[in-house]
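May I ask for a sample protein chain and its fold as tokens?
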Amino acid sequence: MKKQIEHALLYPNIHREFCSDFVATVTQKLHSLGIKTILAEEKRQHISTKADVYLPEKEAFAACDICIVLGGDGTMLSAAHIACSTDTPLLGINLGTLGYMSELELEELDLLDKLKTGFEYADRMMIDITCTRNGAELETFTALNEAIITRGAIASMLGLTLICDGSKVNRYRADGLIIATPTGSSAYSMSAGGPIIDTKLDAFCVCPICSYSLAGSRALIFAPHSVIEIEPYSEKGGDIVMTADGRYSMPLKDYDRVVIRKSRKKTRFIKLKKDAFYDVLNRKLG
């Protein structure tokens, strides 16, 4: 696909050492391609490199053609939660340690030339997470990676009933459950023993955390049109918490329900390399 890119929003991790130097390097490269830079007003005091345009963060996402994220996966998640509402494509340049979501490493900046010669988009599935109590909706969150239902500060085992499309699938005794998207399958879910799902697919992965039974220790994959429901309770009266993408949390009571569906929103990634996801897996896991 060839699209005219005129303005790129730079979204750096301002807590990263030498962040301004990285921004300066990327800015110089973009200017050489005739692309102007936008920086959020909220980040202005942290970045010494001057941008061509300064706007409030949400306006900046709406005004740019693409957003270039400089950081790790946490910074990508932060940008994705705004970009999914403005349909802004994201291009990640890894400054972190793993960088599963990033398309480029710093030494690959020459590939930014493809912003002028042609590139592809890849849409990533997101999930809507609705917490309910006695049938009444408490709050809804949207996540790119996962929803996690786990015990809180008190180390009390959880009972968790898993329901798919109204039918009971399993009942777990565990520290919690992870409901991951394909993007999130290479994050906490993978660490808990879940499978890595090709990000070109749409699917749910339900992975138990430290299950107390061999029969309940297997991860399950569900179709994207499925409606997943989790009903937790604490066997010893401990806290229960639902966390979405490590950014949003919701305290739960016994027998509240967490309902998870495929979201209408999506995160759009810019692809400059062929099958960069597998290249990252090979480099990071090999």
The first strand starts at residue 7 and ends at 12.
